[in-house]
Amino acid sequence: MAGIAVLGFGVVGSGVVEVIRKGQESINRKAGENIELRHILDIRDFSGHPEKRLITGNPDVIFNDPGVNIVVETIGGIGPAYELTKRALLSGRHVVSSNKELVATHGTELLNTARQNNVHYMFEASVGGGIPIIKPLSECLAANEITSVTGILNGTTNYILTCMAREGKDFDAALNDARREGYAEANPEADIEGMDSCRKIAILSSIAYGGHVDYRNIPTEGISHISYEDLKIADMMNYRVKLIALSRKIDGKVFARVCPAMLESGHPLANVEDVFNAILVSGDAIGDVMFYGRGAGKLPTASAVVGDIIDVARSMDRSRMNIWNQDGSQSMADPNSVDTRYFVRVKVRSSEEARRLISEKFGELEFYEFPDFPDQLMFKTVISTDGFLTDRISELRGTGSISDIVTTLRILEQ
Ligand code: HSE
Description:
By secondary structure, the protein is an alpha/beta fold. Helices cover 37% and strands 26% of the residues. The chain is built from 13 helices and 19 strands. It has a nine-stranded mixed beta sheet with strand order 12-11-7-9-10-19-15-17-16, sandwiched between helices. Strands 3-2-1-4-5-6 form a six-stranded parallel beta sheet, with helices on both faces. Helix 4 (100-116) links the parallel strand 5 (94-97) and strand 6 (121-122). The radius of gyration is 23 Å and the shape is elongated.
């Protein structure tokens, strides 16, 4: 028998309970064990809820119950989630988690604690919602040297960008819809400013390259400065704008970044829309492989959590925690020294003079002008290092007839 305690009865926790209740028989069969929900920890009032008899506000009820051997952490954040995860692992209980912030921040330590206590710490649901990616990356693709991971890893921002581009919906209205659907974080700034994607690419990169990648070393930009105009212009040029999280192995170092980027419409990630996420992984043996599915939401995320519960129930007698190396962090490449290309949109008083000034800095370029934006000039830079390009672009501001730089966006090449 596998006795389960769910910590946190919010969007994901309640989804886990729903999925287990609905699929109980087939879940038991696949697990080879009876999966028994024994407790739900939440301090809020759930009077009248059908699961009321399982709900407690006291963690000791769970830790004093010898029948609980799998703890499901769906609280989110650090604080109590960290304390309770640590306590569960130290007490010899397996932990299944959807908590990307906790895995990205304390994953190395918690994996170590799990190993020392011969239990599992599983977190398939921490990246990509319902998409299987942690296990494929750490197990199915283990034969490969992974060279890059590129993804759309946040459902909320992808949903917002899709609503803005497709329906012309206002940013705040799209965000409110994403919150109502249960996609957004309690503090949606983590979605919008890219921190959620940053933590997720740190987790994937740690697995992909085998050593801890600290999310605090990943330059991160969100989508709060992306306007409807940016999306419209990108569309007119046959591009899409997506919040991209990527990492690459370059000369033994890891380069990682989160930023909004323009993708040509034929790029495999360009048409990933709404709450969907996708992750493109390149390995030396497999070449390219792509994972796609719902990246947020109650049931997709619960699907990944319950998948981990079944996996743990099948192999409760051993820890399988060689997900990444515990000794030291990955050394990171200088993000300024990595090659990229920018799309730049500037406000001009005289297009002719502006073209001349820009060409002086960047050499011969292709320019774009659109009748809907009569005072604006657009161009794609040459490929050069990020640091070089950002310096040259910022020198344009207020030069001659260039009155302002409206937008700079990196272009993600295929
Ligand atoms: N807020 C997250 C997202 C939830 O929108 O992707 C899933 O991790």
